[in-house]
Amino acid sequence: MKTQDDILKLIEEKRQKYIDASLDIWDYAEPIFEEFKSSKRLAKILEEEGFKIIFGVAELPTAFIAEWGKGEPIIGYMGEYDALPGISQAANTTERKPIKKDGYGHGCGHHILGTAAMAAAIANKDYLELNNMEGTVRFYGCPAEEGGGGKVLMNNAGAFDDCAAAISWHPTDDNGIWSINFHAQQKVEYTFKGRKPYVKESSDSNILTDYGANSLDALQLFIMGAQILRTHLDPCFIVRSSILKTGDEKIDELPTESKIIYSYRAHTNKQIQKAMELLHNVAKGAAVMTDCELIAEYKTGYSEMLSNRSLERIMHEKFEKVGTVPMTEQDWNYAEKMHTALLLKDGEQATFDLMRLLYEEQAEPIIEQVKGKPYNNLLYPFREINVHKPGSTDICDVSWTTPTTQCVVACYAKDTLGHSWQEVAQGRSDICMKGMLVASKVMALTGIELFENPKALRAVRNEFETKRPGKVYIPLNSKKIVENEMR
């Protein structure tokens, strides 16, 4: 009879297999929805370990489900493997050194995120098999977290409907449970299509002149209206925009196509939906006033998190058991070296400001323990955090279908910013690999607890079923709207 302590050994026995896979995926560094090598790299290992593989989930070629076992409960592990544009970077360097100009890089740690979740699923499978236990272990290969909303699309396709609980993690520069909320978010790209002036002959031979439609005028009117609308939004809103095309590249010609992308972040899905309706009316009005065609292309949006404290507490208990990354002198020297590459004046300040926001009165004792260190090896205390952390993630949408939890593990030097070349540079380090294995152990133990302890699983499900009723979940799906079509 294997015990939960044996889970840690089961993972260590296959550690090199997992390290090799993560390093390969770091090398692949593939864009969203194009993670063909990365997804197949993980799927091949899972298939070798006895999992049944189904590709093309939600009609996404790089989304897959790997499943082993039979019966209930079904416990899921979620992995990611997409990279970020524009931050290609050589490993272990303290200066900006792209491998490929404007290339992709793993600046959010997804090369280890997916691999660790896979390792947890395999360890869970091994444990059930060795103990002759029933239940189903499922790994979700989730593409395009960075802006594509892979999990949203998989969730909408019903991939999580029968899952009893979903487990994940994220590489960061600290250790704990993400017992926090995230912002709901929606992006929309507006295109204003105008037309050139022309003359045409009518049936009664009268000459009519069409003075055209100026798309740049429409864009300018929209920006003015959007700015006024912003003053009517809740203060929690974070608004971002970028003009993609002004249309007046040829100064002597009337602009016939202008583009802008707008992003709204707020506390709740409901707030986003209402604000997006108002923003669309602004865009529609600008199009009508200038006689332009409007095309609104909504990108996949993210909802807020439906937190499950019962599941988060189980995960924290397992993290206490596993411990943080075991640092050697060589690791500390590496962290010190890479910390100098951050080039941030008062770099700790941002770290501590966020800590004070999330941990409030608990923050100062934590700060005293990590202040001045190049690496954070402290496990934060569990706290039910109700404030919204800046940022959005598609894992939140899964939490509306099944209880969901995620931990964070310090895989990078303290104060390393996500989505940075400095994070890419540290992505092949021993610290990063050790952090990946710590995460896999925490996740695996969390899953095993749900298999072995029906009472704990019931508590998790009861909390979910208590919170879920009365809350309306309408996914912020992708869609395309055409208004005032061209004559």
From TrEMBL:
PANTHER family: PEPTIDASE M20 (PTHR30575), XAA-ARG DIPEPTIDASE (PTHR30575:SF0). It holds the Pfam family Peptidase_M20. GO terms for biological process: folic acid catabolic process. GO terms for molecular function: dipeptidase activity; para-aminobenzoyl-glutamate hydrolase activity. One of its GO terms (cellular component) is cytoplasm. This is Amidohydrolase. It comes from the Bacteria. InterPro entries: Amidohydrolase, Aminobenzoyl-glu_utiliz_pB, Bact_exopeptidase_dim_dom, Peptidase_M20, Peptidase_M20/M20A_hydrolases.
